[in-house]
Amino acid sequence: MTTDVKNYLKTALLGSFFYVNYKIKLSLQMDSLNSLRYLNKFLYQYRSYLLWGTVFTIISNVFSIAPAPIVRYAFDLIEEAVDLHYLYKGYQNHDNIYALFAQITLFYGALIVAMALLRGVFLFMVRQTIIVMSRLIEYDLKNTIYAQYQNLPLSFYRRNNTGDLMARISEDVGQVRMYLGPAIMYSINLVTLSVMIIAFMFMIDTTLAFYTILPLPFLSISIYYVSNWINKQSTELQKQLSGLSTYTQEAFSGVRVVKAFSREDDSIRRFAETSEKYRKHAIRLSYIEALFYPLIILLVGLSSTLIIYIGGIEVMKGKITNGVIAEFVIYSNMLVWPVTAIGWVMSLAQRAAASQTRINEFLEVKNEIVSTKNTEREIVGKIAFHDVALTYPDTGVQALQNISFEVQAGETLAILGTTGSGKSTIANLIPRMYDVTAGKILIDDIPIEEYAIGSLRSQISVVPQDVFLFSESIRNNIKFGLEDCTEEQLIQAVKDADLYHNVMDFPEKLETLIGERGITLSGGQKQRASIARAIIRNPKILILDDSLSAVDTKTEHAILNNLERIMHNRTSIIISHRVSSVKLANKILVLDEGHLVEQGTHESLMQNNGLYKELYEKQLQTEGEEVG
Ligand SMILES: Nc1ncnc2c1ncn2[C@@H]1O[C@H](COP(=O)(O)OP(=O)(O)OP(=O)(O)O)[C@@H](O)[C@H]1O
Ligand SMILES: [Mg+2]
Q: Which CATH architecture has domain 3-363?
């Protein structure tokens, strides 16, 4: 071939290479790859794994390249042997020569097997370092994300749904691990192996080296596009799958509603529809995947043919021996896998970057609820609100306006009001689940922002309106991580919450499992278990958010009496719809649509002739009706 043609080919090849490179960079959206920078600190932390991984990769590559020249020697040797064999025909040495060559060939064969074994050993070590590193980072990353989740305020959980939180800690971390493990491993392998092979090939024969490399960029680019497409499709598939499982999960947890409204057929139909979409997609994907591998094999075959053709010409010119052709075919086959991996690695990196961007988004969320002075002190229990207003940040709902009141330590405050009037919002503000939009909250005359969050919350027990119990034993639900509490204290709390007799009726008493794996508690039992959980902690401030709504008036009375004894000298806040629960409080707040419309004792409010009296009389009437 003339030098002109060669030069032309080289320029064309280089040009197209840069063009494609540019295109790939564009489609990779380099800024999204920046998100992977976050992982560098982990890579640095585990740098010894990375370093040893690289060393082992190089060693294993030496052993995988070494057989190629051996094959060349063996090839050339056999050729010579055959010639010699014919030359010595009829001589005495004829048979000896044959035996000698057979022995040498066998030796080469054994050498190649030994190399393969050694290579295997080092490949094992490569995986033991780099893949192990990726698992370690995965572990750290999951813990980091989970710790961040635990740190973030309630408002964060309002903004993001559970599925999303779960996906980031499981699937997204998984994607990132694929980048840290396989992608990095194959990249190191690609770089070391191709540098070694290409250098080797150019040392042996430039022309043949050139033609061996020629098809590789095309191979890698086409694989990049195909595997990108496959990845996109499988992400889509993943989404459909998670849609399917969300749907199924809801159908299971809402099974009572489904059955009560006899919507089973409808539920089955919707499942089948979603499932059908998934099936179609999955089959189409496997069709493309099935086409993909034969295509690579075809390309490899074509490139081998090219080597043999060009090599043949070189042999005829007397530039190289037959053995070199065999050697180069081996090289080209060896290069194919890492080159195939480029495309794959790039799309892995891209997916990991997208996942890491999502993870970073959550990691970067700052918890605005932080303490200004980290004051840790024992709370006595005085609470004061000065002109407090709260607008929920996401919805813009003005839940509270101009709320001012004071409770002395040891007093009982009751909050009464219609639904949606802002009662639970007040309960949220005291343990600082949200920060006020305007005004001030003081506890023991110290602004609430100055308290260390952990110290503040550990001295306040809230029984939330929507009771949540874990799928655990009753004991664990009540103790809920409390270490230093005696059996007597536990029993006492259960008794004070008026749950003792119920629990003793259960076959396994306090060890009875509740929730998904165990028995279902009645609404009132749940509320009382939740109250026991709150009072066992000996809080300085106890908040019951509508926690007696599901118990009858007799039980309500019993619990309130017990509370009076337990909360002696401490502050209790009782939120309710029912006048009967609030009557005995030292102070009663009456809320209406976020405004504090009345406050005072039962007697003073009755004299006021306001909303309180109206509610009281209405409820007295209905109670009378119920009794009568
Ligand atoms: N986390 C939140 N984010 C946005 N808006 C909220 C949030 N919680 C409550 N709201 C809104 O704030 C208002 C007051 O709600 P709140 O829960 O305090 O009422 P409530 O008096 O406890 O009512 P109920 O007696 O029904 O429990 C309502 O309009 C409600 O929709
Ligand atoms: Mg409420």
A: Up-down Bundle (1.20)
